Every structure is written in structure tokens, then in C-alpha cells.
Amino acid sequence: MIQFSLLKLRFLLFFFLANSFLNAQEKDSIIRKVESPVFVSTLKDLNNSSPAVQAIAGLLQSSRDVFTNTAAFNFGVARFKIRGYNSNQTTIMINGIPMNDLESGNGTWYKWGGLNDVTRYAESKRWLGSNPYHFGGIGGYSNIDATPTNIRKGHQISYGITNRSYRHRLMYTFSSGVLANKWAFAGSVSARYAQEGYVKGTFYQAAGYYFAGEKQINEKHGIHFSVMGAPSYRGGQGLAVQEIYDLTDDPYYNANWGYQSLPNGEKVKRNARTSSSHMPIITLSHEWKLKNEAKLNTSVYTTFGKYRRSSLNWNDANDPRPDYYRYLPSYFENVNDPISAGVYRELWENNPAGRQIQWDNLYAANVKNLYSQENVDGIAGNTVIGNRSKYIVENRWNNSINYGVNTKYDKKITDKTKFTVGAFYQYQRNHYYKTIEDLLGGDFWLDVDRFAAQVGVDPAIQQNNLATPNHLVKVGEKFDYDYYVYNHKTTAFGQFDFMLNKMDAYAALELSHTNFYREGLNQNGKFPEDSKGDSEKSNFVNYAIKSGLTYKLSGRQFVTVNAVVKSQAPYSRDAFVSPRTRDYLVDGLENEFIYSGDISYLLRYPKLKMRFTLYHTQRKNAVWSRSFYNDAYNNFVNYSMTGVDYLHQGIEFGLEGNITTKLQGNLVVAHAQHLYTSRPTANVYVDNSAASLDQDKTIYLKNYKVGGMPQSAFSVGLKYNGKKYWFAGVNYNYYANIYLDPNPDRRTAEAVENFVTSDPQWDEVLDQTKLKDGYSVSAFIGKSFKIKDKFLAISANLNNITNNQSFQTGGYEQLRFESQSINKFPPRLAYMYGFNYFITAKLRF
């Protein structure tokens, strides 16, 4: 009874601290206050191993944490982010080798997509803590052990059927186990396919492959290698404004496709926004067991390949996108043309084919556009006559080569102390360029900047490459831009872990150097002196320090505390003003600083597990860069902000326990504030000119919400384990406080300079878009069979079983904005999929 009272007292104390911690904050605007946001998450809990002998790393492994699992599986439909972090705050590794993209810091899961049997048991810790491989990010780490001995010996074949992005998945995996010659081998192949996915006009074709070998040479030396890849080809979907969803009565309207006529008269669906990628990963590692329980691991790796996205492009022609704002009834209503508004409303509501891309019309425009181009490739008198394409499908390429080496030394000093040091070198080169995929019936495409041409500038300035002016591009040839971005990163870290009877603790230090630059391959007519050759080389030196401890209140109760201070170099993707055309760097490029900490209370009883966490993170001096089309300038605009500060603070609560011997319940809650906490400085440039549109412009972002995710989430679930290895469960999930990320240009003094504070449009300009709260109900069921020495498992995951199609899960405020017509560019929105399922059968033998 006394123990229960102490538990209750500690639990209430944590909730009291949480409410104090998450006090309301004022939001920045030019004059008035705005409400602040709140957020909720989930946790998944720990295993039943004896906590008395568990070290901190085992205690906090998130693959057994009810909060993390619920956030990944149940909250994913609402785009929930643990602690509000993007993937660049989590270190993703294969065999202890960092795999994050150097240019953006993001995770690169698409490189091994579909290899579930290899990646499903990754060691993960999605918060601060000790890391046995790397210093890690504030979002923790996830390490995929791709060695053959990590995969269960035998064969496994599985088939899945679903109605999501793809329809069918087939997978085969084998592992030899350790053979008599001390070798072990494993492999896996998979295929995923859909002629059309959940959203109309999309398709999915993907494969995956993995092969690895491991050799124990002797008692001291072992080697292992792995090769994996995941080629894919997909048809994309896009987001639309609410007006279109209302007109079509379809929350999953996709503007990226249309019907195209074949020579035999058949009409087929064609998607203009396709993507493909294939980037194999090759690793080779050596493990050396030294004297006195020391170990040295050294690895080399490379990953290389191509990533492509297609898109429509046009010149001297009307916009071919069916969801272009000038094709909507609201546009004509705003210009007082009710007759045209009625015509377009009729088209949208009653002519489904007319809502999509009119491929046949694009072909017709191209084959009738006879054109005579003089001085082709800059050669006087070189005249070519043919059908100049007004419309094309272009491919935008981002091909990369990565390689690196890392080495890590572990030394067990005593039974209770361990020391780890490591060093990493990483290199990445990204190659950006365009090619023509389809001339759509034309003979060639003229390689000039259509935006420069539209404003009547010097013809030389229109040239994308002065070496070949007036170049006529054919299918497969490069055009427009062509450049490399290089990244080099060198890192060294050290970590000390020790365990006492009542406490485990660690401390870690990291030092790093980052270097990046651009190399232009074309001499652009707009920037002849700043487009070709190497740019200025940017160098940043950074440090990071973290520490933490786990205090054992008893064999079943623990308190953990972690803290980190780190500096971080800006990512090269955000550092250049417009790398497509020139090598200018964003003004005021400096290191970002991060301060983060968390405190947790854990219970680990055989039939009851719980984690309650408070966390607080501040990010200072981040860079924010975007490019978008601005109607006022009839051109693309490059918009960069420096001095962007963020605050992420909140609570995470996960509870899992047995209600009866067969029935288990879980409860997950997350509540947080993810805010902008500064007034950044913006510089705005047009692609056609070196002159800036705005310099040192103040953006009033302070206390606006970081958008794109629920800032509150809640889940409650039940699971029943029946006799003879069958199980079933259900979860109710609720999502609240969902905001779209604010368009910075609407949060400026200039945006409201024509309004008085009492004008309703004042608030309309400044208010952040908030979406309605939503919910989902999911269920799962499965059964296992043992047939002699074979094992068969069948399971089904059923999502959104109430078919709730009214829940807006996210989107974005358009960066295009006109203060004189506030609603001209409303936000684009995404809706949660209706009822969807994944049914799979596995046979292991």
C-alpha cells in the first residue's frame, strides 16, 4: 500500500511539472496576440527482462517502447513527428555506418525500401541517450544490423495484399546460419506492385535485393559485407485546394494525370509526375577483438545511383496543369466574370475527364507549331526548321555518389565501465541536371529561360548555356541547368559509460568539420561570371556534448535524465540562393546551435510498464530556404531566412498492462508546443536578376506554430491473446492542434501595411491556418500455425475502419501571396485515406 502511494505521488508530481512546463506563450505578430498550440503523442514500452541488471541502453530501446511504436504505426496517418523533429535530427545507420544524406541531413529509407525482413529489427532509440555507434542526433538513432547472423536461420516467403500505395508485395528471405567453414550468408528479394494505387492516376513498381556474407576468420578477426538496393518507379499524387475537393467531391483528387489516346484509339491514364530511383549500398566491415576486452571495428562503404522526378514544362503556351488557379470558378468570381465562373463550375462538376491533364491537346499544340530557329548552337547561318515543342515532359535528376570510412574502438575498462571512441569521414557528390523525357510530338525544345524571355531582356541573358546558345534539345539530352554540389564531413567522438548499483551514466563529446561547395558545368547567360566553375568553399567546425544518467529507485522504477549542447553546420541544400543558376551563398550563413534535455520516469513490472517523459529543445540560428513562382514578378523567387529559432517542448506518456491474463491495454498521450521563437531576417531574390527584391526583411514568426503535424495526439487500445496462437486488437486515435506551416511573407509589416488593425483582413492575413481535430480507428488480427517444422503466420492490419474521409491531415500554406487578394492562393490540403488494409501471410521453413 505504501509502495502504491509513493508511485501515485511520483506520477502526480510529474504531471504537475508537465503542466507548469507547458505554460501558454504569446505569439508574435505586428500588434496582437494569438493562441499557442498543444500536442500529444504515444509510447511503446519495454520488455520483461530483469531491470535490476539492465543498463541504460537496454532500458531505453524504443523498439520495445509503447509510445514510439504507437507514434510510428497509429499516428503515422496524421503525419505525426516524435518531438516535432524532422528526420535530419535522427541518425540512421546500417551496420553502424551513418546513412543520412549530407546535403539535407534527412534519412534515406527509400534506398532500402521493401527489405522488411532485413530492416524490421533495427536497434532504435528515438530520444536522447547513450549511443554505442555514433554521437547521434537529438532525435536518437536507428541502426540496421545487416549482418547475416542477425537474420533467423532458414527460409521465409511472404505475400501481402493491400489497397494503399501498392497492391501486392512478395518477399523471400534466407539465412544459412554459421556454416562449418565459419562463413554465414543471407539474402532477401522483394517486389511491390500496383497498376493503380489508392489515389487515381498513381502506380507503383518497386523491387528490393540484399545479399550479405560474414566470416569468422579466427578468434580475433571477423569480416562481413553486404549489398542492398531498392529500384523503384512510381506515379505521384499532388495536393489541391479545398475548392477543387468540393467541386469534384473527391478528397483524393490528383491533378497529375490525364487520358492519352494511343494510335489504336485506346485511351490510357498517364501521370506527368513520376519518380524513379536506384541507389545501391555496399558495405565492408572488419572486426578485431583486441586484448583485455577491447574491440576495433572498421568499415568502408559506398552508395551511388540516380534519382529522377518528371514534370511538365512549357514555353509560349497556356499552363497545362488542370488545377491552375486561373481555371477555377473562384478566379472568375474574383474578377467579376460570373458567366465564365459558371462555365468552369460546370466543367469541374460534370466533366471528370476535363479535370485532368489534356495530353491529346498538348500533342496537337506541338505538332502544329512549325518554327524556324536561326543561329542554332551559336553558329551563324545554322537554321533549323521543325515543330518546336510548346509542351514537354522533363526529367529532373539528382544523382549522387557517396563513400566513407569509419572506425570505432570499444574498451571495457572494468565490469562497470566502458570507453568508446570513433572517427568518420564521409563524402557526397550530388549531380543536378535536366533532360527531356518526351517532346510530346514536337521535334525539339529551345533551351532558353522562358521567364527571362517574357520580361524582354537581352537575348544573351536568356541562354541557359552560353557555350551553345539557341540549342535545340532532343529526347534524353541535357538542358537548362547542370551542376554538382560537393559535401565533405569529418567527425570524431568519444563516449564513457559506467554502471553502479543504483545508477548508470554516460558522457559523450563530438567534434566535426563540414565543407561544401558548388561546381557549375554551364555558363548561364544571366550570371556569366558566377555560374560556371567552383564556388566559394564553405567550412564549419562544430562540437557537441551530451550526458545522462539512469537512477534506479528500485528494481522496477527508474528516473533518467539527459542533456545535450551542440552546434551544427547549415546544410548545403539551404546554403545557396539559387544553385540552378549561380553560386551565391545565403547571407549570414552560420552554425546552428541546439540545446536539448529530457527527464523520464519508468515503471517495469511484469504486467505493467510505463514511461513518462518531459523534454525541452531549443534550436537557434537555423536557415530556411525555398523557391516558388511569384506572379507579381512573373518569375521564380528564391526566399531565404536566417536566424530561425525553434522551440520543441512537451510530454510523452505510454502505459501498457495486462487487464486479465488474456487481455492487454495500452494508453499513449503526447502533449507539446512546437513553436518558432524568433523574428528571422529574410532576403528575397529573383532568378533573372542579381538584384534582391528584399534585403534584411523582418519576419514576425515568433510564437507561430511549427506546422505539418498534430501537436496533440492520443491513443487507447486493447489487445486480446487467444488460445492456439491467435490475437486481435483495436486502437482509437485522436489528433488535435494541427497547423499548416506559416508562409513567412504573410507575417511581415508590408503584408498588412494597407490595413488598419480593426480591419478583419488584418487578422485574416496574419492568422495561421489551423485544421480541425480528427480521429482514426484501427484494428489488427492474426494467427500462427506450426506444421511439423514449418511456421505459418497470417495477419491483417485494418486502418480507418470507420472510413473517416473528412480528416485533413496536413498540407501547406502556399508561398504565393497577394495582400490585395488574400484568398487568391488558399492552402493546399491533404486528407486521411479512407478504409485501408494490409493482409499478409508468412511461411518460415
TrEMBL record:
UniProt protein name: TonB-dependent receptor
Keywords associated with the record: Cell outer membrane, Membrane, Receptor, Signal
Localization, UniProt: Cell outer membrane
InterPro entries hit by this protein: Beta-barrel_TonB_sf, Plug_dom, Plug_dom_sf
Domain TonB-dependent receptor plug: 33-107
Family annotation (Pfam families): Plug
Gene3D superfamilies, alphabetized: TonB-dependent receptor, beta-barrel domain, TonB-dependent receptor, plug domain
A GO-annotated cellular component: cell outer membrane
Segment forming the signal sequence: 1-24
